[in-house]
Amino acid sequence: xxAGGFGTGGEAPFQLRGFxxxxxxxxxGFLITASSFIEYISGGGGGGLSGLGFVYGLPIxxxxxxxxxxxxxxxxxxxxx
Length: 81
What we know:
Distance between the termini: 22 Å
Number of helices: 2
Strand content: under 5%
Low-confidence stretches: none
Order of helices and strands: HH
Oligomer: single chain
């Protein structure tokens, strides 16, 4: 193995395909925020957890949106010998 984690074939040791960390974090933030609204509207005695879900759910969603915005898609490399 050479420096940078690449083998002799020039390929990365692993690849993540079809998975976006930004999408996952936006989804988690949305679920937290939506569940806090549902708890608040339904009047469930959660002991103030709906407020915590709202306070922490929105920043989680914004962090995921920032990751999604800064995501760089792979670009094919053309090279000759």
